[in-house]
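Journal club prep — side note

Before the paper discussion, L.F. wants everyone to see what a predicted structure for a comparable chain looks like in token form. Sequence:
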Amino acid sequence: QVQLVESGGDSVQAGGSLRLSCAASGSISSITALGWYRQAPGRQRELVATISRGGSTNYADSVKGRFTISRDNAKNTVYLQMNSLKPEDTAVYYCNAKTWVVYWGRGTQVTVSS
């Protein structure tokens, strides 16, 4: 099994920055990809960014150029650097780990005010 713990969520003004962290533990060697998803009130959970074991990244169009996903394998941690935040980025952000099953963290709240 894999356990995921997110941190770094906060309330910021539009144009600000935040860095989210997700610490993974457990069966780390079984993880093929890590990612960030978000869910705003009344909306479905959506992909934000993913990073593969080899370092390949993928981003939602809405965050390209503003968000950067990275991972520190020594710390078993994945990060999401979020710049130029917009009110529409307000959501609960969830960390995701893919093995032969998918694991989720409990989420961290990001609120962007205009």
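L.F.'s comment for the group: The CA atoms of residues 78 and 108 lie 14 Å apart. Keep this in mind when we get to the figures.
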